[in-house]
């Protein structure tokens, strides 16, 4: 009896596999062979961002009497060559500079009181990024398309931190090395025949950073950090312009 059941199930499974193999696998959509960016096209572009802030006796949750100012400057030029239709390779350079000056701030939580005064931080970071782009046309549209950019990045940075609220000034110098691999999907829209506007989102990536410190040119320290990101970061949405030659 058991042998007959096993034989029956085996025959049924074999027939189902054979039937599925013979049928065409179709998920309800067809591939679109249309060309959005032609082979041999050059793309040049980039992004620029600048922001400043100033706080005068500002309060944020448990932080009181914040008096600070600073800025963030970042730009990222890029070029790409289409080795095939809708497929390109290229390079991107990224640079950022940050300044933060805190004249005073205090943290009060239960019986804990922490005061920060005369804190100064100046840093900059840079990276060279190899990119691979794949464009996905939206139907037969020649104006709108999706794209995915694979990025491999190597870079570094330096920072200078000064704390002058005590009897003596404490200075720290940092040097950082960075390496990352990431995916950056986005959307592109052509304004005219050559100029396009891009929107991208950093979604998936692996990042490693190593930071070495020296305090007052005497004591040393280091930090190593790795990060794997499998989620969409809405704070990492970026806008850019590109020109196709």
The H-and-E topology, N to C, reads as: HEEEEEEEEEE
Query: pLDDT below 50 for ≥5 consecutive residues: which ranges?
Result: 20-30
- In terms of DSSP E residues, the strand content is over 45%
Biggest sheet character = 8 strands, antiparallel, barrel
How much is the average pLDDT? Answer: 81
Q: Rg from C-alpha positions? A: 27 Å
Strand order of the biggest β-sheet:
1-2-3-4-5-6-7-10
Distance between the termini: 74 Å
Which shape, going by the Cα principal axes? elongated
What's the tally of helices? 1
The overall strand count is: 10
Class by SSE composition: mainly beta
Bin the helical content.
Answer: under 10%
Topology diagram in text:
Elements: H1 2-22, E1 42-60, E2 63-84, E3 87-109, E4 112-137, E5 144-163, E6 170-190, E7 195-200, E8 204-215, E9 219-229, E10 238-244
Tell me what the structure shows:
With 245 residues, the protein is mainly β. 9% of the residues lie in helices and 68% in strands. It is built from one helix and ten strands; from the N terminus they run αββββββββββ. The chain has one helix at residues 2-22, and strands at 42-60, 63-84, 87-109, 112-137, 144-163, 170-190, 195-200, 204-215, 219-229, 238-244. It has an eight-stranded antiparallel beta barrel. Strand 8 (204-215) and strand 9 (219-229) form a beta hairpin. The longest helix is centred in the N-terminal third of the chain and has 21 residues, at 2-22. The protein is elongated.
